[in-house]
């Protein structure tokens, strides 16, 4: 039972607007999302939920439930992404952000980095005039404006492909028509990124339907100029929810989230009453959370013309070691300011 998962690809193909359809069937969108991402095991799902999903997809239950497979991440070298919400190779990864929060900058950075790793990068041009789109276009090998031009580009593709598109294509179902074509090609692995330049995704429940990775942006981090402004508590991935292969990563992730969650609570108290009013144990958590938050900031390659600082790429192995040192108090002598926009801890030790 533990190896069973939903056939999410089939659901996406047959029920593009799954959130709306699930509500109409009397299902909670969060319940459906948790099943699709594996957060809730199929073995613990109510039978009526599975039956309702099979009815929506107009398929047999045997077609809806498949034996699970090992998920693999794409390592980007971006600390906060690889640690808290790893990109799922061959999956659909979505950005949840309001306009101007840096989602297009992050997308451009990911495309730039993966292009150098021999991924073919495709951009389904969004209907936006955002100045941040310039870097995304420059990091894309192929620009497509409609399904016709997309289908024309398919015969020339091979190996690993990154497809970036905006939310409007989810509602029309066009993104799934394109993915069907891409996934039908032997030896081709397509990893998808969905963004919403309008910012409406923030106000919707499951705006993209089931996702393999959620990257949620944070206005509070933006107000303090901590970039990339990704919320480490809300951002999740099937890799970290489901994968038991890397115990060290999973254990550190849980510890880091616990510290950062408490740190965020304590920030309100510190802002209202001052740091000295905290209990000794809370002072320690606050300072370590502050260091961890600072460490997770990063310089981007696509931003070099504006920041005048060289971009940095940090392997996940180094990130795990660094996070462990911060959590264990091995760098308590360092101020959080010294950790802002560094690469690894070795730069300041």
TrEMBL record:
<dbReference type="InterPro" id="IPR050053">
    <property type="entry name" value="ATPase_alpha/beta_chains"/>
</dbReference>
<keyword id="KW-1278">Translocase</keyword>
<keyword id="KW-0139">CF(1)</keyword>
<keyword id="KW-0472">Membrane</keyword>
<keyword id="KW-0067">ATP-binding</keyword>
<keyword id="KW-0066">ATP synthesis</keyword>
<dbReference type="Pfam" id="PF22919">
    <property type="entry name" value="ATP-synt_VA_C"/>
</dbReference>
<dbReference type="GO" id="GO:0046933">
    <property type="term" value="F:proton-transporting ATP synthase activity, rotational mechanism"/>
</dbReference>
<dbReference type="InterPro" id="IPR055190">
    <property type="entry name" value="ATP-synt_VA_C"/>
</dbReference>
<dbReference type="GO" id="GO:0005524">
    <property type="term" value="F:ATP binding"/>
</dbReference>
<keyword id="KW-0813">Transport</keyword>
<dbReference type="InterPro" id="IPR024034">
    <property type="entry name" value="ATPase_F1/V1_b/a_C"/>
</dbReference>
<feature type="domain" description="ATP synthase A/B type C-terminal">
    <location>
        <begin position="243"/>
        <end position="305"/>
    </location>
</feature>
<protein>
    <recommendedName>
        <fullName>ATP synthase A/B type C-terminal domain-containing protein</fullName>
    </recommendedName>
</protein>
<comment type="similarity">
    <text>Belongs to the ATPase alpha/beta chains family.</text>
</comment>
<keyword id="KW-0547">Nucleotide-binding</keyword>
<dbReference type="InterPro" id="IPR027417">
    <property type="entry name" value="P-loop_NTPase"/>
</dbReference>
<dbReference type="GO" id="GO:0045259">
    <property type="term" value="C:proton-transporting ATP synthase complex"/>
</dbReference>
<keyword id="KW-0406">Ion transport</keyword>
């Amino acid at each position: 039972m533990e190896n069973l998962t939903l056939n999410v690809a089939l659901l996406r193909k047959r029920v593009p607007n799954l959130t709306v359809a699930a509500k109409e069937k009397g299902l909670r969108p969060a319940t459906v999302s948790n099943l699709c991402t594996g957060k809730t095991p199929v073995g613990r799902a109510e039978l009526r939920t599975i039956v309702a999903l099979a009815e929506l997809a107009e398929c047999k239950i045997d077609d809806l439930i498949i034996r699970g497979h090992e998920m693999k991440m794409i390592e980007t070298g971006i600390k906060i992404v690889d640690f808290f919400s790893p990109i799922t190779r061959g999956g659909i990864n979505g950005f949840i952000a309001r306009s101007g929060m840096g989602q297009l900058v992050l997308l451009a950075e990911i495309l730039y980095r993966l292009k150098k790793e021999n991924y073919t990068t495709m951009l389904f041009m969004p209907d936006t005039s955002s100045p941040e789109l310039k870097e995304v276009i420059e990091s894309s090998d192929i620009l497509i404006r409609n399904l016709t031009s997309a289908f024309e580009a398919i015969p020339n593709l091979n190996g690993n492909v990154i497809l970036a598109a905006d939310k409007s294509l989810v509602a029309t179902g066009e993104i799934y028509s394109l993915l069907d074509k891409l996934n039908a090609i032997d030896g081709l692995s397509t990893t998808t990124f969905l963004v919403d330049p309008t910012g409406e995704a923030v106000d919707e429940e499951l705006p993209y339907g089931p996702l393999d990775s959620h990257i949620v942006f944070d206005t509070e981090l933006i107000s303090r100029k901590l970039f990339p402004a990704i919320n480490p508590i809300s951002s999740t991935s099937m890799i970290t929810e489901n994968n038991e292969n890397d115990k060290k990563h999973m254990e550190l992730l849980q510890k880091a989230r616990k510290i950062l969650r408490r740190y965020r609570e304590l920030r309100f108290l510190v802002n209202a009453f001052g740091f000295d009013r905290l209990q000794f144990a809370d002072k320690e958590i606050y300072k370590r959370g502050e260091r961890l938050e600072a460490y997770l900031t990063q310089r981007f390659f696509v931003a070099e013309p504006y920041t005048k600082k060289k971009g940095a790429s940090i392997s996940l192995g180094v990130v795990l070691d660094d996070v462990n040192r911060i959590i264990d108090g091995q760098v308590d002598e360092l101020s959080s300011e010294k950790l802002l926009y560094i690469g690894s801890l070795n730069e300041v030790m």
